[in-house]
C-alpha cells in the first residue's frame, strides 16, 4: 500500500511541476492573459479530478457527521 501511495504522490508531484513549468512560459501571458485564464480553468478541473481519492472520502465522512448532528 505504501508503494502505491508513493507512486501516486510522485505522479501528482510530476503533474504539479509540469503545470508550474507551463504557467512559467511567456506565451501564457500574451494576448490579454487569455491562454493563462483558459489553462487556469483546466488546472482547477484537472486537480479536482487528480485529488479526488483524497477529498471525496473526507467529504463523505464529514457529510455523514453533519447529517447525524443535524438530525439530533
Indicate the topology.
Blueprint: H1 2-23, H2 34-50, H3 52-71
Explain how this protein is built:
- It is a single chain.
- This protein has one domain.
- The protein is 82% helix and 0% strand.
- The protein is built from 3 helices and no strands.
Mean pLDDT: 93
**Low-confidence sequence ranges:** none
- How many β strands by DSSP? 0
- Structural class, by secondary structure, is mainly alpha
Shape label: flat
Biggest sheet descriptor: none
Number of helices: 3
Structural domains: how many = 1
Measure the end-to-end span.
38 Å
Tell me the radius of gyration. 18 Å
Into which percent range does the helicity of residues fall?
Answer: over 70%
Proportion of residues in extended strands: under 5%
Q: What pattern of helices and strands is seen along the backbone?
A: HHH
The gist of it:
With 72 residues, the protein is mainly α. It has helices at 2-23, 34-50, 52-71. The chain has three helices and no strands.
Q: Can you give keywords for this protein?
A:
72 residues; mainly alpha; 82% helix; 0% strand; flat
